[in-house]
Known about the structure:
By secondary structure, the protein is mostly helical. It is built from 12 helices and 2 strands.
Amino acid sequence: MKKIIILIILTLFFCVFPFAYADLKLGFYSTSCPDAEAIVHAVVQQNFNEDRSITAALLRMHFHDCFVRGCDASLLIDSTESKSPEKDAGPNQTVRGFEIIDEAKTLLEASCPSTVSCADIISLATRDAVALASGPRYNVSTGRRDGLVSNSKEVKLPSPDMSVSEALQFFTAKGFSLFEMVTLLGGGHSVGNAHCSMFRERLSSFNGGNLDPSMDPNLDARLVKVCGSSRRPARNNPTVFLDQKTPFAFDNRFYNEILEKNGILHIDQQLAMDSLSRDMVSRFADDADSLFQNFANAMIKLSAVNVWLGNEGEIRKNCRAFNKNNE
């Protein structure tokens, strides 16, 4: 009688809580697709050899994906005649690197059909790109599933012109602290770049000739040459490196730059000036090891935001479309 009762309880448990046992774990594909991580790494390595800026591109893609619905690869979905996905939203118009994910997915589908999620590919590719840029090497647990929804109207991300307090609201909503925000923004922007449209209102040539007191005049002069003026803005909305000294290397130089009023974006410069974050910026400017360790921890946490697990979601055959659209 006791055995029957226990059996009934277990049956009810797994029927009511079918995903309770599911979780991310290291080496999730060790049996189902043992070469998965090696395949992703090879694709990232080849692309990095051709273009070192892919580290910044993948970091931004990863952040923009995880900060909407969670790390579910919803950012990768292409538009259709009836649907406007996250990719169409303003903040995502300049996200790039999708072809890297496509390339890895094609190889993985050939090796292990319908096994490795697009969400896991993003996390693994970002990890490898950071390491290739001389950044921290960290482990990424896998087992994510791909989401089933992508809606441009849901995209709400921190903007470059925000204050520290305003940006922090977005991070705390996802469970991140101020310290983790300073870590992720500074680490990501160490290898990042920005279009003139994201900061030109700070420039004297777009601000009636008035210098921004929080920007070094020499930097203002250099940026004006690139971005033009309100009367004659530069064509094609050029980009500039957020770290002017070591733009392709993941290091702590960015924090030194913003302490010297060489921050490109308003939010970056505010990190060094706001009393809430100034001491944290100084810490990372002085201690690269601390940045590496804390950035790795923050990225591991970021990659686990609102993930789909177990039998949730799907494993897309094509990262740009839900499976029902591939049938």
